[in-house]
Design brief:
Elements lengths: L1 E5 L2 E3 L7 E2 L2 E2 L6 E3 L1 H13 L13 E8 L4 H10 L3 E6 L7 H15 L3 E5 L10 H9 L3 E11 L4 E8 L2 E8 L2 E5 L9 E2 L16 H7 L4 E4 L32 H10 L5
Helix pairs in contact: 2-5, 3-4
Length: 272
């Protein structure tokens, strides 16, 4: 199985946000791999391994792709150290991209590399747009399974059984490959992913890169390309025009009775 995984770098969510005019000041940002994309890489690795800590199944390949400036290679190297086989860096910048352009770029890469499966995080932590995977599936005319909490290869690796958390519990969908899969938080639980080869359960969470993996990552290829080289024309159709902090919350007040609370909610807050 050949799997293409998308990876985006995002600002560290623990870092204090600073503003520069109507935009975020990213001059001192600490960049890191988007958490859901890291889960996507872990999912792809588990699907192609012969059990926990096992070697890659013969003929299987995991390719990671990102769109961004040259220094995104740092995040791509981290995915190679986890165990991905190769990476692709498409030259671009966040302020020149939108969900549609990203989806069309991945579509072009799919047509070039012909993977059996595209794995994506359900969303990126910086924008939380949550629509690239759905757009990609529509452009490719492929089946899709979103918000996956479990994945199991079936039919000899020709299809996936995907568990999706819904209000009433877990909904199971079967999708034939090729397909688009977006993953949620619980996909990295010990028994959440089952590939074609049976094996022991994994440790919870995405794997840490070993020293051996870090050294091996230095020799793995990162292919550089551009939107023009991929035949992706046009620019972003939507853009962020202004970013501002939410207004400061007013201090709460105490009320002496339920009657007073109702009165304030009705007359002052006007919510009832």
């Amino acid at each position: 199985m050949k799997i293409l995984v998308t990876a985006k770098r995002v600002p560290d969510p623990e870092q204090k946000v600073k503003f520069k005019g109507d935009a975020l000041d990213q001059s001192a940002v600490n960049w890191q791999l988007n958490q859901f994309d890291e889960y996507g890489v872990e999912t792809a690795l588990r699907l192609t391994e012969a059990g926990s800590g096992g070697a890659r199944n013969a003929g299987d390949e995991v390719i990671v792709v990102s769109i961004g400036p040259k220094d995104v290679q740092q995040q791509l190297r981290s995915t190679l150290a986890m165990g991905a086989d190769k990476a692709i860096l498409v030259e671009g910048s966040d302020d020149a991209l939108d969900a549609e352009l990203v989806a069309k770029t991945i579509k072009a890469l799919v047509e070039k590399h012909k993977p059996d499966l595209v794995v994506m995080g359900k969303l990126a932590a910086d924008s939380e747009a949550n629509d690239v995977g759905q757009r990609l599936a529509a452009y490719l005319d492929w089946p899709q399974a979103t918000f996956a909490c479990t994945v199991e290869a079936t039919d000899g690796g020709k299809a996936l059984l995907v568990g999706r958390e819904v209000d009433a519990g877990v909904e199971t969908k079967k999708v034939n490959l090729p397909a688009v899969l977006t993953v949620d938080l619980r996909i990295v639980l010990p028994n959440a992913v089952k590939g074609v080869s049976a094996g022991a359960a994994y440790q919870e969470g995405p794997r840490y890169a070993s020293l051996k993996g870090i050294m091996a990552a230095k020799k793995k290829p990162i292919e550089d390309t551009t939107l023009a080289a991929l035949g992706v024309a046009g620019g972003a159709r939507s853009k962020i025009v202004k970013v501002e902090a939410p207004p400061a919350r007013k201090a709460g007040i105490k009320v002496a009775s339920i009657e007073e609370l109702v009165q304030k909610l009705h007359n002052e807050a006007k919510v009832i």
